[in-house]
From TrEMBL:
InterPro entries with a match to the protein in the record: DUF6970 (IPR054243)
One Pfam family recorded for the sequence: DUF6970
The DUF6970 domain, residue ranges: 75-150
Keyword set, alphabetical order: Signal
Keyword hit for Transcription regulation: no
Protein's name in the database: DUF6970 domain-containing protein
Signal peptide boundaries: 1-19
């Protein structure tokens, strides 16, 4: 048994040892048009960490309720989140609601009524499907307006 394990390990090592990997980096050409020596041109693009939305929601120009201003101030008092916090207004179930994006990862997003009372968590959590209290939110929400997003 021990010999078989050693033989299998030796086989895998020898099979992988002959593999060569070539890594290339997109670069801008140097001013002279050629590269000589050990200099490497700078990459052509920068890394991004903030996701790009598939579309930009129409901005909401209505007055923000005091509880929402407090929520925005609390977000700005913390360090920048990744992804950034976005607040959107929708019509849902015959009412105006506010959707506040999750701070990160498996955390819940919030849907609140116009008085700041939590209605549900439509997404997030371990399953990504929220708390189940408004499973139809994605299908029934309408009239999207961007209220605020972290400008940092």
């Amino acid at each position: 048994m021990r010999l078989l394990s050693f033989t299998a390990t030796l086989f895998l090592f020898s099979a992988c040892a002959h593999q060569q990997v070539s890594v290339t980096t997109p670069t801008t050409p140097p001013p002279s048009g050629s590269v000589s020596g050990t200099d490497t041109p700078a990459p052509t693009s920068t890394n991004t960490v903030d996701p790009v939305n598939r579309y930009v929601a129409e901005s909401d120009t209505t007055a923000r309720p005091p509880w929402l201003k407090q929520r925005i101030a609390a977000v700005l008092a913390e360090r920048k989140r990744n992804p950034i916090t976005r607040i959107l207004r929708y019509d849902y179930g015959g009412k105006t609601v506010y959707y506040i994006s999750a701070p990160c990862c498996d955390q819940y997003s919030d849907v609140l009524d116009t008085k700041g009372k939590l209605i549900c968590h439509p997404d997030g959590g371990i399953t990504g499907k929220g708390d189940g209290q408004c499973a139809d939110f994605e299908k029934r929400k309408s009239n999207e307006k961007l209220v605020w997003q972290d400008p940092r």
